[in-house]
Amino acid sequence: MGPGPTVRKKPIIGLLQVAGVVVLMLLAFIYSRPPGVPDEASVAKELAASPGKPAPLVSVVRPSALPGQLAVTSTGSVAVRSYVTLTPQVSGRVVATSPALRSGGSFAAGETLVTLEQRDFILALAQVQADVTSAQASLQLSQAEASAAIANYQMLSPGKETPPLVAKAPQIAQAKAQLQAAMARRDIQQVNLERSVFSLPFSGRVVESTADEGQMLSAGQSFGRVYALDAVEIVITLAPEELAKIAPAEGRAAMITADGLNFEGRIARVAAERDPRTRFSQVYLTASNSEPLTPGTFVSVKLKGPAIENTFKLPESALQVGQSFWIVKDGAITGMDATILGRSNGHYLVEAFDYGDGIVTGAVPGAREGLPVRLAETD
Length: 379
Known about the structure:
Layout: H1 4-32, H2 40-49, E1 57-61, E2 66-80, E3 84-86, E4 92-97, E5 106-107, E6 112-116, H3 119-156, H4 169-195, E7 197-199, E8 204-209, E9 216-217, E10 224-228, E11 232-238, H5 240-245, E12 253-258, E13 261-274, E14 281-287, E15 298-315, E16 325-329, E17 332-336, E18 340-344, E19 347-351, E20 358-361, E21 374-375
Parallel strand pairs: 1-21
Antiparallel strand pairs: 1-20, 2-11, 2-15, 3-10, 4-6, 4-9, 5-8, 6-7, 8-10, 11-14, 12-13, 12-15, 13-14, 15-19, 16-17, 18-19
Helix pairs in contact: 3-4
Keywords: Membrane, Transmembrane, Transmembrane helix
Family: Belongs to the membrane fusion protein (MFP) (TC 8.A.1) family.
Protein name: Efflux RND transporter periplasmic adaptor subunit
């Protein structure tokens, strides 16, 4: 009989505990409501109860519609479009190198970088020049013999055409071919002699070089790497919406800042494909003076888009909650969903619209559609 009353009390205690939790949750909800945020009905009731209460003061701006321009900023780095491998076309021993042929050195177009020993090339050229002279003599001899043979034949057979064999046509053709071959060998040796002096047709900088006096260089064997100054470019990435702001992008002017120095530049091209992960596009720019730019340097770039007619330049304080604006019209505020073109230097560039008595700046306590307000500048 003793345990019976205890069993009947347990459900009652559980219900009391649940009821206590519900009460605590209701109290927490009531006291957690932010004070001073009445709904529209409460505000209307309050205004009706206190008709003498003044309308809130608001500050406004009255911008003029002017041409605007969007700007896009980005960061990137200096890169090289392509490197050039230093490779001799002839073999030989190095007898002289330019002081510029060192890592970090700069050279001009046509400047001699490496000179190979030229004695072998000079001798080879002299030898083939002698072959040319010999071939010329052989041709002249064949032509003279042919002239004599033709004259004798005409004396013996007047009025008849001289046969090719009598006119020594095969011998003359062979002599001409030998002369042409000798001249070709001479031209090859002349080119080899010129190639013993190594230079490049562009101005650039040396990345690395292993050539030095006394070293033997072999044809086709690399001895360094350089890049042309006009191969230096700036690479940045832009989102699709940023590219849209400056469209058309190619040829667009840019201001490039690198290591505290400013350079003028232009967009040369936009990558044909977007990055498959970020969906951004790589944009390549060229600077007006690329010589001071070192590959690998981080840069900041500012791009200016095309001019846009009829725009407002509004302060950030004019933008209200919901990406809209309040305007004052007939003594009350009303919402305006204007087209925001972009943001730059603490201002919004907005398509021009009819703003009535002005565009409100800053927050308006209890703001709502149709709320009567006073302009601060008229008080």
